[in-house]
Specification:
This protein is an all-alpha fold. The protein is built from 17 helices and no strands. The N and C termini lie far apart (68 Å).
């Protein structure tokens, strides 16, 4: 090691040879990687709570508004990229000290700090353009989410629970989507929001186990480090709470019985993660983390099934 770098494993943080390298001009590639466009799982995990709540607010027997679904997809892509940019700006010194992340656009010098702030403004402008198409309640909620966007990257410095703050930020769409559809908030989306927070605590603890050795050496906190060998039990508890609260949200929204049938399948997906995850295998942690996209899709289908099946 030299220059204060931390070397734990030779794990590539940035995929090489993917569509970013094949399709984008050289000048655009660092910005695509800064926004994590080559790693879409984060966008999906941000988008699913939005789509869940839009579906939850949809009248019985109707399809969710496809225009609203599309707008939230655009907004999730832009704001996930903005969040990653904020995170990389805040973590540029940490990233430069860790072998796995030192090739990221900012610490490697591919994107200057000024350029990163300009790109952040560009992405936030897209998110704002989407937000102002909504009603006043949704616009107000969207504005409040900026507090979480800006503060989350610093939580790993001051608390062992940065995953909780990520959950608060990443599941805000459970409130926003419902408000965008109906112009109000009810108890069901609030319960769904709480479920999403527990879900994020589970999957991001799994994710954080990839970097627990690096984090310990440079002083970054996480629930993976906090729970250690007890992580499996904690994640099982988070996931059990997730399913319980989602079931309650479905009950409050008067979803029909097929919702609960598909929710049981989604619960099995979470149980598989807990039973099979290998916390000392970074590749396996990433696999289990990414599998949460499947959970999100199953839950969306479950809500749709609960809408279309007549209650009476």
């Amino acid at each position: 090691m030299s220059d204060g770098q931390v070397r734990v494993e030779n794990r590539a943080d940035i995929p090489v040879g993917g569509w970013v390298d094949r399709l984008l001009p050289a000048w655009a590639r660092p910005y695509a990687r800064l926004a994590r466009l080559d790693r879409p799982i984060g966008t999906w995990l941000l988008l699913w709570p939005c789509w869940w709540s839009i579906a939850l607010a949809t009248p019985e027997g109707s399809w969710p508004d496809w225009r609203l679904l599309a707008l939230f997809a655009i907004g999730a892509l832009a704001m996930r990229g903005a969040g990653c940019t904020v995170n990389d700006i805040a973590d540029r010194d940490f990233d430069g000290r860790v072998a796995r992340t030192r090739t990221r656009p900012i610490p490697s010098g591919q994107v200057s700090l000024r350029q990163a702030f300009a790109f952040l403004f560009f992405q936030a402008s897209i998110g704002f353009a989407v937000l102002i198409t909504f009603n006043r309640v949704a616009i107000a909620l969207g504005g409040l989410s900026l507090i979480l966007l800006v503060t989350y990257p610093f939580m790993k410095r001051i608390t062992w629970w940065p995953q909780l703050f990520l959950g608060l930020a990443f599941n805000w769409g459970a409130l926003l989507g419902y408000a965008a559809e109906l112009g109000r908030l009810d108890l069901a989306p609030v319960v769904l929001y709480a479920a999403g927070i527990l879900w994020t605590l589970g999957y991001d603890t799994i994710y954080a186990h990839q970097d627990k050795d690096d984090d310990a050496l440079i002083g970054v906190k996480s629930t993976a480090r906090l729970f250690g060998a007890r992580s499996g039990r904690w994640i099982a508890g988070f996931y059990a709470g997730t399913i319980g609260l989602i079931a309650l949200a479905g009950y409050l929204a008067w979803l029909a019985w097929p919702f609960y049938l598909l929710l049981a399948l989604a619960a099995l997906q979470l149980a598989w993660q807990v039973a099979r995850v290998r916390f000392d295998d970074a590749a396996d942690c990433m696999l289990k983390f990414r599998s949460n996209n499947g959970f999100g899709a199953l839950l969306f289908l479950a809500i749709l099934a609960g809408i279309f099946w007549p209650i009476s």
